[in-house]
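Lab notebook, bench 4. Still working through the backlog of constructs that have no structural model yet. Next entry is a single chain of 418 residues. Request: give me the structure tokens for it.
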Amino acid sequence: MEKFTIVMLGIIVIGLCLFHRPPSALAQPEMQGETFPVTVEEPENGSIRVEPAIPDDGNVATGTVLTITTSPADGYLLDSGYYYNPGEGAWRLYHESTEPLFQITVDREKVIGASFIEAEVLEGFTVIQDVVYAQPGVKKLKYDVFSPDEAKNLPCVVIIHGGGWSANTEDIMRGLARELVRTGDYVVFSIDYRWIGNQDGDEEPNTMADLIEDVYGAVAHIQEHAREYGGDPTKIAITGDSAGGHLSAAAINMTDMIGDGGFGVQEGIFEYKPTYIPRVKSVEHVRKEIMQAIQVAAPSYGVFAGDLLQRFAGDNPDPWLRAISPIDHIPNIKERAVPQLLLRGTSDMLIQHGPVQAYADALKAAGQSVEYVQVEGANHAFFDWKPDAQTKATFVKFGVPYAAKMKSFFDTVFYPEK
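Model written out:
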């Protein structure tokens, strides 16, 4: 069973890498006059119009620019307009827009649609999208802010998305962000980061250290601007799922590794320099502020050590692997508290019980507060939000109640009187 699991994990990660190749790597049509099938999925609770109209045979000339207009029904608002490219990898990748009017260019087979959501779900908070915090490579790194109405000095929650370190954006965590912000107790920041290797189109492959530096850069930027959104930069909870579970555990455990000494450049020195550092602050200043601010974490179905990280360990695997493994950097409770809530579905074939239990045991051995909850019947990625009905239903069944569980855990740190 153990061998089978490792093989399946390898297949899934490889599939993700193929699935999320940069646009430059996707095959482009070269023949003049070539056409591709374009399908429009009729949405519920709203309508969608495509101009020019799709021909009766469904085939559209390559290079055609389609304008998509979405209109919600009464009592609903736009969740996202989208398209996806059939056959683009093992798992469906939605290219989404929150604007009611957007355009796409036909360059391969496409399916177009729209997702609408009850207006009351979006009441009580404002969403500020695509705040850019750095651009170390091809891709602009950004985050979305979910700020309660009249927020002032509220603790912050930072969410890190999953996707095999090589897929997805902050958009996939918007369901979780909505659940955590709706009670008005937290300002929520959902962040993006570089994808591993060359998946963003960068000539120089991104390492796992780069991704962790992006997380710390996002936190530093959030701290600098938190009060603009009603947040308290000195009080931060951090969470993430799957690959984001690994990155969130790394973020809370490994703050003492923030520095400018380089990562593996000199023997025995592994330090993370945040992708963003405010001009008026030194790396040491940022390290101290982040260490004091991140006070609790909820890494969901995450990777904390072992084979899934081994492939990212560079040319000197043993010290590199330890340097990116959260289980090897748990502080003793006498040095610093890092309380953590660990969630995993009992039907999750990707993240097994044993490694998560081992991480929980290591936290306990260091004197840390930890709660490990197995979600009965849940598979992997139950905190994801996508436009399709199945993903939404999974989130309603598992994501909603366990987002409430997560918030209650954060409350024990930031609202102990509750």
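Notes after review: The chain has nine helices and 16 strands. The first strand starts at residue 35 and ends at 40. Flag for follow-up if needed.
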